[in-house]
Amino acid sequence: PQNQTPSRESYYLTTAIHYPNGEPHIGHAYEMVGTDVMARFQRLDGHDVYFLTGTDEHGQKMAQTAEREGITPLQLATRNSAAFQRMDDEVLDISYDRFIRTTERDHHLASQEIWRRMEAAGDIYLDRYSGWYSVRDERFFTEDETEVREDGQRYATETGTEVTWTEEESYFFRLSRYQQPLLDLYRERPDFSGPRYRFNEVIRFVESGLEDLSISRTSFDWGIDVPAPAEGSGSRPTQDHVMYVWVDALTNYLTGAGFPETDSEQFRRFWPADLHVIGKDISRFHCIFWPAFLLSAGIELPRRVMIHGFLNNNGEKMSKSLGNVVAPAEWVDRYGLDAVRFFLLREFSFGADGSYNHDAVVGRKNADLANNLGNLAQRSLSMVAKNLAGAVPEPGELTAADRALLEAAAGLLATARADYAVQDYHHALESTWAVLGDANAYFAEQQPWVLRKTDPERMATVLYVTLETVRRVALLVQPVMPGSATQLLDLLGVEASGDAGRTGSSGAGPRSFAAWDAALVPGTVLPAPRPVFPRHE
Ligand code: ME8
User: Fold this and answer.
1) Exposure winner among 105, 117, 155, 221, fewest CB in 10 A?
2) Region at 390 (left for phi over 0; alpha for psi -120 to 50; beta for the rest)
3) Residues in contact with ligand 1 (CB, 6 Å cut-off)
4) Residue with CA nearest ligand 1 atom 9
5) What is the pTM of this model?
6) What is the interface pTM, i.e. ipTM, of the complex?
7) C-alpha distances in angstroms, 247 versus 12, 166, 291?
8) How far is ligand 1, taken at its centre, from the CA of residue 308, in Å?
């Protein structure tokens, strides 16, 4: 039909769903920010984005924690799930579309449907499991993946968590069947996961051989019921089975896309997912089990799994016993949300492990934000206010220096698109700040405050070129610092696009990248300038 706006391309992305057995910590916050920045970038770049996050509420860990606290697992999940949601809404300004809880009904239906499909494919059989299980990791270990320590207890070597001997009737998934199909997938789609060095670890693991996977539990009941086996499908269970928590957890990504309603608008639009963002400790679940389940169930595979590193406190692992667990809200109170978001994305690359401490955060806040960006904007805007009646100046003829800076700034969007495609926010920001460095050098060299007396026309050109550069930078840092970037764009008199996404934090709201080349219009009267990036005192 006519008069319809062309439909935008869809973009579906997810975080891991977090265990609500405790309060969220800064590691969780890191993953939220590293996914939110991608969601905002894609919206500004014209995509129809669906962003899923939530909590992973079943399993033995939840059941045990609840028992210790003398409440039901659902009470525990409900209380802490709310804390995660509060962090997203009130502390981090996360622009998610749905916060899923795995105790929700549609998720139970989705999980049972994927189970039935895997069973129908002949990939599920009943047997007995005997081996080691880590409740903390919700993960099975073979004996040679464990060790007995001085205290006489047995621990998982890789994660250092205690394991307990488990012997029970269990359903198994024929993971061994999928070794070759997975290796083919990794070869055919080298960007299926990143960064490369973390993806390579997964590939090496698959090359070393895959054993079938225990996918149900009988020793407790806090989980999704395994559907009754199809008629005439081998041996009958002697006990009630609930799904192994990871089967249900991974399926949340399908639930969010409307599965099992595969004919629905939502599913057709958003499946396969474009991006799963997860941490390095759960890469095998996402790069091995998840595609194997989907291949078995005859469902298209997600396009990419981005494996981020861990965030450590001052080089040390965060832990309650070390007393160095930082609550995200404390951090944001101390430094401000945008400074925290900027620090997390600028300081280290998303795939690598990173460490934070007070001096490092303050260094970024003062040098990169207050000085390089804030000061440049404030100085040029103040000169315009004082000397040019607060209107965007009319540029005269451009010099080589003017053109070089304008071209460097114009090229930033293409760089950012390439970087965001592989979640290299660090490089995108590094490139942006390199241009800001050029802009500061340009401003110092051109000395517009001297030109004010000697050559006012040239001053106007220098101020125009500077503001135009600040405009491009402000547009581009919106996903990272939505609040401050919006304020800056307001001060530059840049019109809001209205259609660039639903989360405007303040002022006129987000400006779509469609306006990338819409240069500042000379004569536009600007609001009175005020500093946007305060120094940390
Ligand atoms: O693993 N730094 O939940 P979770 C950065 N429910 N990221 C960290 C981190 C740190 N210090 N600590 C944890 C689970 N993470 C499962 C996921 S998905 C279908 C099910 C990351 O609450 C971790 O790597 O233990 C994971 O991606 C996320 O936080 C949730 O961890």
Assistant:
1) 105
2) left
3) 16-19, 27-28, 30-31, 56, 249-250, 252, 278-279, 281-282, 310-311, 318
4) 27
5) 0.96
6) 0.99
7) 21, 18, 12
8) 10
